Amino acid sequence: MAEIIFTFLPPILIVFYIIYTDKLKEPISLIISTFCLGCLLILPAGLLNEILIGDNDNYSFIAGFTEETLKFLALFFYIKDRKEFDEPMDAIVYGCLISLGFATYENYEYVFLHEFEMSGLSVAIIRSISAIPLHACCGIIMGYFFIYYHFEKRKIYLFYSLIIPIVIHAVYNYLTNSEETYFNLYLVSIIIFTIFCHKKIQTQQKKSIH
């Protein structure tokens, strides 16, 4: 039971928090389908990672490229042209949904399908304070830069929306094999930056409503 809680509850709680902070709520059907699409992305990501990385942990940083690119493509092709995608906070909401849909299914695989020296519960707990926040941050940051591309027509931000999450994720994977202090400092700094991005758009939304 504890394994199930720590596997599924952390990403779901973050999703609910992001949805709660959106004052102009999105359709439930699109929220669910976007989250499910994120889950399905684990299939092509797994195939690409197997081809490009295999069992070589030294190349794990490549997953930042494969996984964030797939999330970006989902945001661009599945969300961008929908009529519901009509104000800046939406980019953060849907970016987060795609990313945490992916992270939720990935969590399930790591905890219940893979074999590690530590217990499944230990894997779930560690990922709940590391990999899950990382995926959430990448989705929110992707959405943050996508805002400036889509709503302000600043084309360079489309590149930022893709490359910055890729770099963040790749560096995170690279640091998993380094000194724990560096890894923790890096993750905390990314979380702080993500909070700043989210709060900035949240404040802008409140002002636009009032």
Features:
210 residues; single chain; 9 helices; mainly alpha
Query: Runs with pLDDT <50, length 5+?
Result: none
- Helical fraction equals over 70%
Mean residue pLDDT? 95
Strand content: under 5%
> What is the number of strand segments?
0
Number of domains: 1
Q: Label the structural class.
A: mainly alpha
Q: End-to-end distance, in Å?
A: 45 Å
Main sheet?
Answer: none
Shape: globular
Q: Which H/E pattern describes the elements?
A: HHHHHHHHH
Rounded to an integer in angstroms, the radius of gyration calculated over CA atoms is: 17 Å
**Helix count, per DSSP?**
9
Give an account of the 3D structure.
- The chain is mainly alpha-helical and 210 residues long.
- Helices cover 79% and strands 0% of the residues.
- The chain has one domain.
- It contains nine helices and no strands.
- The longest helix is centred in the last third of the chain and has 30 residues, at 180-209.
- The protein is globular, with a radius of gyration of 17 Å.
- The N and C termini lie far apart (45 Å).
- The mean pLDDT is 95.
